[in-house]
Amino acid sequence: MIKNVHGNTVDHLGQAILAGRYPPGTSIPPEPLLCTELGVSRTVVREAVKSLIAKGLVTTGPKVGTRVQASEHWNWFDPDVIVWQSQAGLTPGFLRDLQELRRVVEPAAVRMAAERATPEDISEIESAFEGMRRAVEEGGDYVRHDLRFHQGLLRGSRNRMIIQMSKALGALLRTSFEISTTRADGPRKSLPLHRAVIDAVIAKDPTGAEQAILVLIDGARDDIETVLASRRRLPRLNEPVRMLRSA
Fold it and tell me: pTM here?
């Protein structure tokens, strides 16, 4: 998606903050300098700063300018923040926080899905699984379908808060899936594990569904720990998704 001047300005400043160019507690440059550096108007800079305030990255006040907030104030459910972190470099701590979050949210949501999912929810999850299977067998974008699968499960919970969270979790989940699929034959081995989740949801077996999703989540955690231990470069969200090749 092509962004406008406002979007590009927000991206530039957000990336600079996440990359440490403007560390927490320091001020970003004043408006006149940013206008000159970025070639934009003061109105654009002011609107960009408002966006960064909404994302928790900066705060403003009289005589202190626009200061960068400590990272615990940043909105880690904002897709832009996740992308900027990925561009700056994913850290082991960030990835472990993500896996812990998944272990808290997804099992509970899948239990609800086993009790509440509609036929339409099941159809969407089945369609996502079929896309994953085709990507493994014929090549293609496995991660996109994997993301659809997990977001479909969250929507199947029929809990409005969790459904809203599923939108925010998209970039976080993609980060995890991008890394998991770097393991040799990882997607192929995960297919029966995903199938077990669907089957338990269809059977309206909350306990079985919860156990099946925990197997998936813990497997992803092990994959990520293996990749971290190998010191391989982690994927970045601004790079093209790695396409699986047909067998």
Answer: 0.80
